[in-house]
3'-5' exoribonuclease YhaM
Amino acid sequence: MIPKGQFVTDCRDGDSIRAVFLISQCRLLTARNGKPYAKLLLTDKSGDITGFLWEDARQQISDICQGDVVGVRGIVESYDGRLQIKVEKVMKLDEDKVDLSTLIATTSRDIPAMAAELDTHVAGIRSVHLRRLIDEIFACEGVKEAFHKAPAAKGIHHNYIGGLLEHTLSILRLIQCIFPLYQHLGINRDLLVAGALLHDVGKIYEYSFNRFIDMTPMGRLIGHIYLSANMADQAISRIPGFPDELRLQLLHMILGHHGQLEFGSPKLPMTREALLLHMLDDLDAKITGFSSIIEATPEEEEFSSFSSIYNRFLYTRVYEESE
């Protein structure tokens, strides 16, 4: 078995590197002097890093395609505040000689156990109409299997195999904690749970995720908000007697769950359930995204690199009470 070598998160400016990566992107470009060079996006389970190959680029990448496993030799450099690899040599490797689990980011939690827990939340839905709707959607060919495997994002949060299931389950757990505090306000628990289960279901079509995560044409052109709402609406049309008001409010929750027009929601949340779903979704996404950046920061650094996503540096120190 070929050793993995350094992970992306272990790379430091000036490091000499010999490591195994997945090729997420591979492009042959032309420099200003007319010389061809290659731009590579190199991925492992810890993240990705851009590599530039300047010497014999056309020849070295002639048999390399997106999704291939490669060995890379080069030097880690810092450019414009970001690390990259000046690639000296890249070579396609036999997949049977590499541990693919070191290359494909996957949830650290047990997927079958999470799936079983998700089923308990579905079983707790008392509304006959909503329970039938959930069963109808997840009974469609390939939906449940894809839902268990899909990421919740390409970057930012839960961007790994099993991330969608993990994110959805976290929101359902938050509902269990929050609902008793606001039950007196008349919030419909079943509607809130159904919205949590379905708000991101369209991500199974928004992303491709066999080896590395990328957006599909459907994801780029349509997006998961519409896809999720459409999946729910199509399933509702197959259920005789599904109440119009219930359909209206559920679809509104899905369409409004990003909370702001500039964040992709075609509607602002206008019901208590829609507002609460948005806030719990945002909470889980943000705290997980924050944590992933902090965890990827070297222990000796007090602050992370500047995050363009959150428009700030993140402080990495954890206060612990002394004995």
About this structure: Residues 272-295 form the longest helix (24 residues). The beta strands are 16-30, 36-44, 47-53, 69-79, 82-92, 207-208, 214-215. The chain has a mean pLDDT of 94. Residues 27 and 39 are 5 Å apart (CA to CA).
